[in-house]
Amino acid sequence: MNLKLRIWRQKNSEDRGAMVSYDINEITPDMSFLEMLDTLNENLTLAGEDPVAFDHDCREGICGSCSLMIDGQAHGPVQTTTCQLQMRSFKDGAEIVIEPWRARAFPVIKDLVVDRSAFDRIIGAGGYITAPTGSAPDAHATPVPKPAADSAFENAACIGCGACVAACPNGSATLFTAAKVAHLNVLPQGQPERETRVLNMVAQMDDEGFGGCTNTGQCTVSCPKEIPFISIANLNREYRRAVRSSKG
Ligand code: SF4
Ligand code: FES
How far is the C-alpha of 160 from the C-alpha of 35, rounded, in Å? Predict the structure, then answer.
């Protein structure tokens, strides 16, 4: 495959940045999108140019590091992570536009790399339990109802990639926060902090400068882990419950 790439290049957080065009040839359909970018970077390095900075780690859909806006879609045309996207999803001769996540709370550090530490601070505000864990407990020592286990598992699948924020016209982190709250709030072990968790995590989300949720649903259709939209309704319900309880 021969492709034309238009890539956002930005030297650092102060630089204005601009789109730069590159031609790349001899890409095979079974390459991953990141392997295609590796090939581009090898070419740039051999030509004495600065390679394109982009985030990646596991390259198997687990860590959430990879984060590219591809042709205007978070993680590209398939509902998966950028590292799991194959070049066969594109036509030979295509022009592909590659940008970083664009959100006020995710400032660009360099090229395609953004600072997603706002997510870490939301998790730090409530993504923990205080139940003493000690040594590994026997399996099923704390009975967990099946619906609660299923719901916790579904929401625990969130890898913190930020596609939901990048896809949202408001730059909202509500789906991410909803997943992190739901993961622990439905479990017996998460009950002692059930109310402080949701209040603190939502307050931190607002402090970080994410936009509000207006139920556009772009988050859930862009989420590579298919975190369901109903998690946001659950978050709202948990928040109202916590506010009522805090007012006695
Ligand atoms: S909710 Fe989905 S899109 Fe958002 S951070 Fe988690 S895995 Fe990524
Ligand atoms: S590099 Fe880890 S999810 Fe893509």
Answer: 22
What tens digit of pLDDT does each residue of 15-25 get? Answer: 999 999 999 99
d(CA 12, CA 108): 7
3-class SS at 5? strand
Q: For the residues of 56-125, what is the DSSP string, one character each?
A: -SSSSSSS-----EETTEET-SSSS-GGG-BGGGS-TT-EEEEE----TTS-EEETTEE--HHHHHHHHH
Ligand showing the shortest atom-to-Cα distance for residue 81: 2
Calpha distance 134→105 (Å, rounded): 37
Nearest to 201 by CA among 121, 107, 105: 121
Pocket-testing residue among 117, 155, 158, 216, ligand 1, by greatest number of atoms within 8 A of Cβ: 158
Phi, psi dihedral angles at 22 (to 5 degrees): -135, 140
Model confidence at 132: pLDDT above 90: no
Name which residue sits closest to atom 8 of ligand 1, judged by CA: 161
Q: Report the pLDDT averaged over residues 86-105.
A: 97
Which residue matches tokens 């985030």? 55
Q: How confident is the model at residue 141 (pLDDT cuts 50, 70, 90)?
A: confident
